[in-house]
Amino acid sequence: MSTYDEFQDRNLNIEEQLVKRHFWFLVDEFKFIYNNYSFSSDTILIEFQIGHKLPSILIYRVGEPAYMKLLLDRILQYFEGSIADQNIDFTLRSLAENIIYYAQKFQKYSHKIIDEIDDWWIPVQLFQYRLFEQKYKDAGQLEGFLSGFKRDHDYLKSKGAL
Can you give the residue ranges of every domain in the chain? Predict the structure, then answer.
């Protein structure tokens, strides 16, 4: 059984240690492979981009265009029906606290995210597309949306979602 070994990683920077420590369940439970801020399986790549206070967690579906990646935040918004924990000011929290928060959220939905990707991938893509479409429409910039999101439109159309 593989478990996260903090002693082995003592020479890594603190950001990578935090990612590995709190998301190592992906290796233990789901047999993902870890490499340089990324966890991967045959179907999903999870990439971490670490900011000063917040991680961006990007979800790629293997075999799909990289530009169709999704932020974990958007997936959670779709699953939960709203932006998660709107009353939390993440900028007032430490990077460690925010990574722990996202690890707990990811773990809560891990089976759905990983095992049921076929069920949610296109609906979340369409959900995101419609959110951006509405923002551009509200700003009176629908033409900008149509040109800027053409490949997203073409992708969703090719999947029968539009």
Answer: 1-115, 118-162
